[in-house]
Design goal:
The protein is mainly α. The chain has four helices and no strands. Helices cover about 60% and strands about 0% of the residues.
Length: about 80
């Protein structure tokens, strides 16, 4: 889920540099600012790092989900 932020008190020089950078990249100020935030916070690097550990195929995932569904079945006879 994405959120909307409002930033107050941004110095004029910062706005000028952001506008200039956005223009150089031929993108919106919003897109430029999101990229700056992603890089500063390292969120993309973390996502790529975690992606290395995703090794299940779609078939593996389906088999696992099926096994979980079977375990979540309530046996009515045991609860009477």
């Amino acid at each position: 889920m994405t959120k909307q932020l409002t930033i107050r008190g941004v110095p004029d020089e910062t706005v000028r540099r952001l506008k200039s950078l956005s223009s150089e990249r031929n993108e919106s100020m919003n897109a430029t600012l999101l990229e700056i935030l992603r890089r500063a916070l390292g969120t993309e690097e973390r996502r790529q790092h975690l992606q290395r550990y995703v090794t299940w195929s779609p078939e593996d995932r389906a088999e696992f989900d099926s096994a979980l569904r079977e375990q979540r079945t309530i046996d009515d006879e045991l609860w009477r």
